[in-house]
TrEMBL record:
Main localization (coarse): membrane
Keywords of the record: Membrane, Symport, Transmembrane, Transmembrane helix, Transport
Name by which UniProt lists this protein: Transporter
Transmembrane parts of this sequence: 12-32, 44-64, 93-114, 150-168, 180-203, 223-247, 259-281, 293-324, 349-372, 392-414, 435-454
CDD domains: SLC6sbd_Tyt1-Like (cd10336)
One Pfam family named in its UniProt record: SNF
Gene Ontology cellular component terms for the protein in this record: membrane
Annotated source species: Candidatus Thiocaldithrix dubininis
Membrane topology category: Multi-pass membrane protein
PANTHER family: TRANSPORTER
NCBIfam families (alphabetical): Na_transp (NF037979)
Family named by the database record: Belongs to the sodium:neurotransmitter symporter (SNF) (TC 2.A.22) family.
Amino acid sequence: MTIKESTREQWSSRLIFILAATGSAVGLGNIWKFPYITGENGGGAFVLVYLLCISLIGIPIMMAEIMLGRRGRRNPVDTMRLLAAESQRSPRWAWLGWIGILAGILIMSFYSVIAGWTVDYVYEAAAGHFVGLTAETASAKFKGLLNEPWQLLFLHSLFSFMTAFVVARGVKAGLEKAVVILMPALFLLLTILVGYAATTGYFMQSLDFLFKADFSKLTANSILTALGHAFFTLSLGMGAIMMYGSYMPNNASIAKTTLIIALMDTLVALMAGMAMFPLVFANGLEVGSGPGLLFITLPIAFGEIFAGSFFGTLFFILVVFAAWTSSISLIEPGTAYLTENTRLKRSTAAYLISFIAWLLGVAVVLSFNTWSFSFPFAGTVKTDGLFDLLDILTSTFMLPLGGLAIAIFAGWVMRTEFAFQELNLPNKWFNNWYFTIRWISPALVILLFLHSLGVF
Ligand code: TRP
């Protein structure tokens, strides 16, 4: 069976693809999540495991996922079914696409709640409320926000709507515009913040914290968290990057673009860490203070620097945009599935998927204030509220297992010649990739899982 070239939309150029995929990868995962989980997991050793996961697992699997998407040129469910048929394999591989769509909706439900916090902080900065903040008042301000369910609900709804609105308009009109200016601007502003952090006198201590590996601080859970975050930050394992690959022009090199995306993503995360930890140390804050880290540290800095309200507003606007260019990729697979398989219009499909994620998000909002619970998950991991549960379920389990399935499909199920055609690499490089995707990436994912679950 051959695959018909469909006449659907494509990114206008390779550069646009790189920017869009980077837009998906760079988001709250880099600026909000990476610093706080690094803090919670003891720093350097965690960062090292994370970087190893990015290079040995994330990059090869990203190439595989883009490759599958571009060859299938459809939503993840149909792409998997089609590619399995092309290699005379079971149509049940379509399940991978279904699980991806579900993972996207689950992640979106809490992603948009957190993104709502960043929207609020745009206002706080603009209103000059950062001026004169101390460690105590900054923490109190953040806790105050969490205790306002109606406000959180409003912000969550606003962000959900923003996401649905862009996805409803489709790839070109919706996504391309947002990404071309905003990504470079974010990068520039982060550079300024790192520069400021360097003046606090705690920069060296932060570099030590981030890059000096002390393996005694590394628990089994930290390893699994690092693995999961490598998938989360690169938007891997649930079909988002597969979707983006499906809009990629045929002549663009998958390997090169993957490397660029992974590099930029990692750079942004490390810069976010370098901007925040000096402030943590300078103000005597807790490194392990959790999801509030971004919202407590940076406002203190903006309260002190020259034109801080201006830069603070700009910074949080850019974080909102970074989150926005990521969230659209979370609901894109579900939207594309509905658009390509039902009579629904793209816009209706986008609003429908967003609505489902929004509903679950309402429960997430409540889990930050009135509704709290905690229970053990998968025997070892204790979760603390619905946000934690969804985060762990998706990042730590669904994404790595989805990625594992993608690796197995690309390395063992799909015919070698198809992968070879699609990647279009010199023999030597293809062989390196092929060996990694068949053996190294799957073996590492499995080993890290078994280790963390206490098997050895
Ligand atoms: N990578 C994004 C971030 O770091 C989040 C994200 C967007 C994502 N699309 C995804 C995570 C798909 C997992 C899967 O903020």
